[in-house]
């Protein structure tokens, strides 16, 4: 009588690995970004600090939202509540804003928005980790809930945002440097700090091989909860930037960031299977997605057919992702190629 | 007093008893082997000792204190650290990060990667392992080096009890010797080491004592140096055959239907050659994981890059895809019937007709009457116990599910049946039905190549058996040579001299 808990065959001597090494896929994202910037510079009638400022602002909300998505994707999960959380944060800050004592109201709004982000992420994490449920379904459901709350907070677009404060993150510093670029550098520094925490190793572990992580004593449940909580906070911060950018609150303004954040993460070289990815690559992915419309705007074929914007965006995304997937053809076990 | 003692451990998986009151004790400063055939229970025992699975009954004491581990982390914290064959390394982290997983050196609350790399280099050097770059990503290392890192990771935790479960299976002779030197040093330092290996020579070279398991129980603990290998083999075999097998036809030579020459898929398959005749049941024996399952999958076209020549009825078969193998008349009853053999939510009828849908349909539309007739024919022939042909197969018992997994190929008129342990986890009565079915298929002129973890099946059912060891066929046995002694000796990779000696005894 034979008993064995683990199947012994079907072992894959060579682990899954894309044709382009991860670093190369990240490089690819930066090359595409560079190409887009060059085209933009060639086509734009002028290219000054103002244009830099506008380009930097365009990608910033998506970049911050994608930071959270990167962390979740590293665990092998996915967060579909990113967009609703951006909306909720945006709605809270704009609605709590007031012309009387604007600074205090703004500070309070920011605190409440960040707490909402942390709470929403925590709820996602708790349900996914303890309920052992699929992240895609859990966050789809909670995403609807967060979007619903945002609509209650902000039924119609509006609210009050102090312009001078908004300018602090979307304007130019010393009249030269886009504040968003400085913000980006701060985020990169935070990411480098995060990479040196034990938590980041645990997050990569459970995405890379959940079983091995468990066998190595990693607390899988706690790690997942942390990852989703951090993602919730990042989405709330993204909502703050969106508020500064649009100077108003809109419960529907954030929704596009859900799928775009996933696209940015994948473009940046991360594997949706988990374990591999970096915010550094995600930045390039987010800016590529954000700048494509601005670049295409200089072309007649695009301007004459504005409805085709999504078509072009989709084609570029598909091409980039297909390049990264070529490696599957090297799988020795055909069952792994499926 | 033993540092680790297990008493009366019992563990069931469904209706199958994996451990039945097994006991075992290991002293500090000894290397203790666990021996036993497939399914003897040693791997289950290790999983219980290390908190991977809970026991149904029994006690474990560590340094005199009763312990009950909720997970591997708890066992590791208490001082029992395993090295498993299935690696516990994180592929996307570096060697150093893996070695110090959970106890990373820190500065100001952050991981100090430089200190970690330095400590990793020191650890690897102190173990006298071949040089491995601590900054390398584990994914990029060859299997042998990963296994060394795995061993180093466990030793680095300075456990009281180190458990190595087939932890040297991917290592070459030279690397094994280095690991053994390290283990001997650790033994001098008072560590208790539990060692499991399918290589008998390794056990003899390294271990002080051995506990032999059979059918979920410990049958003896012996001093390795004072015990003949054949005595150990005898202890592993135990009882005589119980299952009833259909009578074998007298030896005869039919036309070959499958010819395999030098089939390779490194490192799992290292040049397999075999011939299978019509009317023959050819067994694949050996311990689990020696390439038997890989051989079946490679023949069925699942492995890309497999080389060698395969001929079916004299026509070359290109190992391109399962569809090509099916077209050539091959059928596979795979290891995991629940995921690879059947589609559980679909009905008995839908599962059986799946491989022959083109034959059962006109212009893409299934002919219901034809499908029903075919299904009922199979349900009758294999006496599949099901409420109706529309019952989802997930409601069937394991044995009846396996019958469905076989039935779907009977409809295709497949000539060559590749079967991976087709009676695993199936009750005795249904087993005998499957034996009779296999024999009747052979009598009809088809051929069966099957792997079994149960030696009794190989002996009772097969006309011939090939023993596999580390990806190669090491022995062919037929007729009277087909004995448990011969199969086990070959399975353990015992040298010819030992084998000759044993045969003279037997």
What does this structure look like?
- With 338 residues, chain A is an all-alpha fold.
- Chain A has helices at residues 22-43, 49-74, 82-96, 102-131, 135-153, 163-170, 179-195, 198-208, 210-215, 220-246, 257-267, 279-296, 300-303, 309-325, 334-337; strands at 172-173, 177-178.
- Chain B has 3 domains: 4-237, P-loop containing nucleotide triphosphate hydrolases (Rossmann fold, 3-Layer(aba) Sandwich); 256-329 and 415-505, P-loop containing nucleotide triphosphate hydrolases (Rossmann fold); 346-413, no CATH class.
- Chain B is built from 18 helices and 24 strands.
- In chain B, α17 (484-491) runs antiparallel to α18.
- Chain B is globular, with a radius of gyration of 25 Å.
- The mean pLDDT of chain B is 86.
- Chains A and B meet through α8, α9 and α15 of A and β2, α1, α2, β8 and α9 of B.
Topology:
The complex is a heterodimer of chains A (338) and B (506).
Chain A: H1 22-43, H2 49-74, H3 82-96, H4 102-131, H5 135-153, H6 163-170, E1 172-173, E2 177-178, H7 179-195, H8 198-208, H9 210-215, H10 220-246, H11 257-267, H12 279-296, H13 300-303, H14 309-325, H15 334-337
Chain B: E1 4-13, E2 16-26, E3 31-36, H1 42-49, E4 57-62, E5 65-67, H2 72-78, E6 80-83, H3 95-99, E7 106-107, E8 110-111, H4 113-126, H5 143-156, E9 161-165, H6 173-188, E10 192-196, H7 200-206, E11 209-214, E12 217-223, H8 229-237, E13 256-265, E14 269-277, E15 281-285, H9 292-299, E16 307-312, E17 315-316, H10 322-327, E18 330-333, H11 337-341, H12 348-353, E19 361-362, E20 365-366, H13 368-381, H14 398-410, E21 416-420, H15 428-443, E22 447-451, H16 455-461, E23 464-469, E24 472-478, H17 484-491, H18 496-505
Parallel strand pairs in B: 3-10, 3-11, 6-9, 9-10, 15-22, 15-23, 18-21, 21-22
Antiparallel strand pairs in B: 1-2, 1-4, 4-5, 7-8, 11-12, 13-14, 13-16, 16-17, 19-20, 23-24
